[in-house]
Design goal:
Distance between the termini: 24 Å
Number of strands: 0
Structural class: mainly alpha
Number of domains: 1
Number of helices: 1
Strand content: under 5%
Order of helices and strands: H
Largest sheet: none
Helix content: 55-70%
Shape: elongated
């Protein structure tokens, strides 16, 4: 599996933060 690009990592971090805040995926 390729390492994430900076853009993908940014999006992943946003989603992960959202899940931590709401307790559910967007």
């Amino acid at each position: 599996m390729k390492p994430l690009t900076a853009r993908q990592q940014q999006i992943f971090d946003l989603i992960k933060a959202h899940i931590e805040e709401t307790g559910m995926p967007p």
